[in-house]
Amino acid sequence: MMDLPSIVVIGGQSAGKSSLVEAVSGVNVPRDSGTCTRCPMECTMSSIATTWSCTIKLRFDYDSSGHSTHQQKEISFGEIITDRNDVDIWLRRAQAAILNPDLDPKSFYQRNIQDLRSLTSPNSLKFSRNVVSIFIEDPTATDLSFVDLPG
């Protein structure tokens, strides 16, 4: 693992945190009216590759009540993304998987934006401390790691 500079994006609701994330990462992140970031998103960018790609993982450190599980569980989410335009929907799916820990994460792979917006589950969380982690390889990127926090 590389030792990278890290940035934490903090601000009030609708203060432009996601716009900053987009400007730094070069990818679109989910946007809706009101609060959109409902779990932390860690983004690591690396310039070691010759072509652009993105991988997403889900990291579970907390149970659905927000208590530490004392054992980290990290799972790959979907395939390697090679089209920047696909990142938004995959981040929406990943966040939905984090917010619905009782459902199999793979059940979100084919859901479209309307399915995700209308998702209702009695066990669905409003926010989570668990993390969507994305790794972007981009030959033109600055080697950097940052965290977008909910709010």
Please describe what this structure looks like.
The chain is an alpha/beta fold and about 150 residues long. It is built from 3 helices and 6 strands. Strand 3 (about 55-60) and strand 4 form a beta hairpin.
Name the features.
151 residues; alpha/beta; six-stranded mixed sheet; 3 helices; globular
- The helix/strand series, from N terminus to C terminus, equals EHEEEHHEE
What portion of the residues fall into strands of 2 or more residues? 25-35%
Helix residue percentage: 10-25%
Cα(first) to Cα(last) distance is 29 Å
Radius of gyration: 15 Å
- What low-confidence regions span 5 or more consecutive residues with pLDDT below 50? none
Kindly state the mean pLDDT as a whole number? 86
Strand order of the largest sheet: 1-6-2-5-3-4
Structural class: alpha/beta
The global form is: globular
Question: How many runs of DSSP E, i.e. beta strands?
Answer: 6
Q: Number of DSSP helices?
A: 3
Largest sheet, in brief, is:
6 strands, mixed
